[in-house]
Design a protein that fits this description.
156 residues, alpha/beta
Length: 156
């Protein structure tokens, strides 16, 4: 994907079809439907695909489910580089983890100057299940935080 102008912020929601692992996809859907101002948002399954969306990006926000032992639906905000990104375990079948994908983008000279990751603690990740109540309840706050990131980045 190639874009002609600098976008400021891009949001990437990582996920799969496994219950709470689809939280990043749900957030992207909500941003596309109800986001003012508009924030470019993309749903991906493979973290390595992030590299395809970084042309002219100044601020990357990634949303992904994780299993860290915290309470289901809790939200962690991490900034790159952060060693915890390698320790957070995704419940999806991502063959190449998020931390490794960001390092690859950095080595290729494509990583934007500002990268923020919102990791949402998964409650259940069974195939084809809906989001758990805890993660569903966390979505409005997650959306608010991601939109705030975009506003702050635009004024930075």
């Amino acid at each position: 994907m190639h874009m002609d102008k600098t976008h400021g912020t891009i949001v990437i929601g990582l996920g799969s079809w496994h219950g709470d692992d689809r939280v990043g996809w749900h957030l992207v859907e909500r941003l596309r439907e109800h986001s003012k101002p508009f924030v470019p948002a993309f749903a991906l399954e493979e973290p390595t695909r992030i590299i395809d969306y970084l042309d002219n990006c100044e601020h990357l926000v990634i949303v992904d489910a994780c299993v860290s032992g915290a309470e289901a639906g809790s939200i962690q905000r991490l900034t790159w580089p952060d060693s915890r990104l390698d320790q957070l375990r995704s419940e999806s079948s991502h063959s190449f983890g998020l931390g490794a994908s960001l390092r690859l983008a950095e080595r290729l000279g494509k990583l934007p100057p500002r990268v923020v990751v919102y990791a949402i603690e998964a409650g259940q990740c069974h195939s084809m299940w809906k989001l758990s109540t805890e993660v569903e309840r966390a979505l409005p706050e997650l959306k608010r935080r991601v939109q705030q990131e975009s506003v702050e980045a635009a004024h930075a």
